[in-house]
Design brief:
globular, alpha/beta, binds 2'-deoxycytidine-5'-monophosphate
Length: 225
């Protein structure tokens, strides 16, 4: 069974997708980490963002592995590094390239082959797994997402004005929504869940309800055959 969870930055996808995977006993695929790893590799190789061919070649060569909860790039643990603003700020240069998306799409499909997975990203339900059993699009208003981000940062003693977070978030939303291939959008058959005013626990319960409903529908139709 494949469950896709897509949505904008800050909608709580990662926490929900991980917890859902744990609750269902499914494997978890963080596709944002794959784009992040390639952006980090390009920074390390000092590539020019104008050199599309070099970025594509690098993407083909990059070895990205998920070990437990860590992300490894070419044999090194990069779990923390790929989350730094210097990586986030340049991701569009790799995520905008259709060739890079194609390389990662194939790897994501290979990962899913023969497994039960929860996969999280922007294009999982719309492009990568159009036949997924259950598609969820998790969203929240820009203000709510920015407030949650501000709170997360405050928890690690970083105090950033809401306007700054909102401005950066709007820029990322625009980038994610306007890329020529793999843009952020709900698949036509996605269940859209707006998490404004809901706690993480509420969202998880709702998502579990949707996934379990799909699962029992599948089991019922298998029995009929
Ligand atoms: O989910 P995240 O913040 O880790 O993702 C980082 C960036 O990677 C995001 O801004 C857009 C890109 N991305 C993508 O283009 N397609 C995906 N399936 C996942 C992420």
């Amino acid at each position: 069974m494949i469950v896709t969870i897509d949505g904008p930055a800050g909608a709580g996808k990662s926490s929900i997708a991980r917890q859902l995977a744990d609750a269902m006993g499914f494997d978890f695929l963080d596709t944002g980490a794959m784009y992040r790893a390639i952006a980090l590799a390009a920074i390390r190789a000092d590539l020019s963002w104008h050199d599309r061919d070099a970025i594509i070649k690098l993407a083909k060569r990059c070895q990205i592995e998920f070990r437990e909860r860590q992300v490894w790039l070419n044999g090194n643990d990069v779990t923390e590094l790929i989350r730094t603003p210097s990586v986030t700020d340049v991701i569009r240069h790799v995520a905008d390239l259709p060739e890079v998306r194609e390389i990662l799409t194939q790897r994501q499909r290979t990962f899913a082959n023969g497994r039960d997975i929860v996969t999280e990203g922007r294009d999982q339900g719309s492009e990568v797994f159009p036949d997924a059993d259950c598609k969820i699009f998790l969203t929240a208003s820009p203000e709510e997402r920015a407030k949650r981000r501000q709170q997360q940062l405050a928890e690690v003693q970083r105090y950033v004005p809401l306007e700054d977070i909102l401005a950066q978030q709007n820029r990322r939303d625009l980038e994610d929504q306007s890329r020529p291939v793999g843009r952020l959008r709900p698949a036509d058959d996605a269940f859209v869940l707006d998490s404004d005013g809901l706690s993480l626990e509420d969202v998880l319960l709702e998502v579990l309800r949707v996934v379990n409903r799909v699962r029992s529908e599948h089991a019922a139709s298998a029995d009929e055959r």
